[in-house]
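Study this pair:
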Amino acid sequence: MNRQRVLTILKYMILVLFLIACLYPLLWLIMNSFKTQEELFTNTWGFPRVWTLENYKHAVVDGKIGIYFLNSVVVSVISVAGTIVLSVMASYGVTRLKWKLSKTTLSIFLLGLMIPAYGSVIPLYSIFNKMGILNTYLAVIIPHITFALPTAIFILTGFFIAVPRELEEAAIIDGCSLFQAFRRVVTPVVVPGIVTVTVISFINIWNDLLFSQIFLTDKKKMPLPIGLTEFQGIYSTDYVGMIAAIVITVIPVIIVYVILHEKIIDGMIAGAVKG
């Protein structure tokens, strides 16, 4: 009994240390976002002596973080929505419908996991230049959806395969069309997988720097990761302003995770069981 109690205490101590290791960087960012530039270097690890909101004011007014934030919201929401719609339909098509090339099509989709984003920049730039969509949201949204689809389909196919076919058959017998059975019967069952894909896609797209830096030139269309570079000058860097901007950047990801964390855990557990 004593040995079991010691093991339990050690387990909780390890979990607490892991929790501190995860939370401390975020708490450090928040604390330092309220410091002055001088105090950041003289009191790096302590609480601010005088709490000030000037850094956030500077980030929003002078750094124009609000414009970058809105651009990130537009690009992320459209990209995630497009990824979810296409991946759900594609996953359903290759797992639930019977046709000769379904497995081949699934393999082609999954081959996208092996293609690095950096290797596609030059051909994409050439294609977008000929299409005349460079320096538009579309030039960023299309690559985001394209590179998010393989992962999304990989996750969702596991959920669709596990759904009993009797559900669709019963719905069709009751008068539903194939599309109605897909939308009203099968899709609600795989909601945990859809939520998991939504969060993964949102985090990757929200934090992306590559496509925006290559395909956009107008600062009014730049997302937040590009906006953070505006705090770095030739001869100096506004570190506290950048930290405040980073906190603003991190907040949406935290909010999304807090709202959907139960569904994410359910999706991960379900995916593990299916695996």
Remarks:
- The CA atoms of residues 12 and 18 lie 10 Å apart.
